[in-house]
Request: fold
Amino acid sequence: MRSKLFLFFIYFMTCNSVSAQTDIDPTQKLKLFLDCRTECFEMYLIDKIRTVDFVRDRAQANVHLIINKIPLPNNRKSYQLRFIGIGQLAIVNNTFIHETAINATSAEIRKGLRNKIRLGLVGFQVHTKMGEHMRVSVKKEEKIQIEQNDDPWNYWSMEAWANASINKESQNQTIRTKLGFEANRVTENWKILQGIEYSYRGRKIERSDRDPVTSRIIRAQLSGKVVRSLNEHFSIGLMNQLYHSTFRNIKLRTRLGPAIEYSIFPYSEVTRRELTLAYHFGWRRQYYFEETIFGVLSEKITDQAIRAQLRLREPWGNITSSLEYSHFANDWSKYRVLLDNRLSIRVRKGLSVDFEIEFDWIQDQVSLEKGDASLEDILLTQKQLLTNFDLSISVGFSYTFGSIYNNVVNTRL
Reply:
């Protein structure tokens, strides 16, 4: 009796009149378009969720499921599941959040996603024949006690990592190592991030007629930020950095500066849409390995930057776009403009278009080493070279046709 009343309540709340005029066949399973904007274990979900038919295109679906991932501190992840009804089910929309445990395995993450998806589909499946066969149950009939969060770490989380690789041939050897540590504390009002990272790349090329060629690139960085949320639209912060790079001829860079950000949309909508304007100001002190093209071994720099960023994650696709202008406050001729646009749009049934462009207009390479780079430095990318721009363009499309169903998982051979 309880289960019937509960299903009736779901039915009544999710649609008042859809059952009378729905464009779906109530005798068939729902058609679900699974739209993974991140790794979501698609083959596993298709194999384990048999109560719907998975289709290859949104135009053939009754329900559009968008899955986005939000990285959390300490190797945790948060998945947002947006269920969007299509056609006569358009008034049925639900959003679920699935947060993983610390260092959760892939098996645990995908099982949790499967369970949340099954739950989210209930509000749509009550409009099909399957709704007559649904039952609701809980593990225990007695009152469920909701435990209060008891966090002995007070929201602090830490993560350390390290990796190394070697690639060796008869006359060529490359060694790479990378290690780091992060400490984070994220709450509704505060975000404190501090991390240290070190990377090394060494290469050796043997030559029969002369000495071997060797190269070494080292990069180390200590950086962090403290951000305070003022309300749903404003945040302020303080950034710090210590930086070392043999590639960029920087023995040591220190930087400290404040920042302020305004969000056009409320921060609570960040997983769907985001439009922000940010202003950064900072003081730098830089020390160089070799004398620069400006004839100095160290200098003080005051810099400022303004950045606009747009992110849209909608049923028709994704748009990520950012534009940043920065310059030295004590020398406006030293500036940089960065443009980064990425679009992935569904043009029509079965047709998707991807476009990406990154363009940097560069007028602030103050750390370049004086003199001409050697041929070895150029071929082994040991040193940064003079340039006034950096451009990267990528265009692609995909067109899917044929059977609309995508229910079978077959990994043989």
The first strand starts at residue 30 and ends at 36. The radius of gyration is 27 Å. Residues 156-399 form a domain with the Porin fold (CATH 2.40.160). The mean pLDDT is 84.
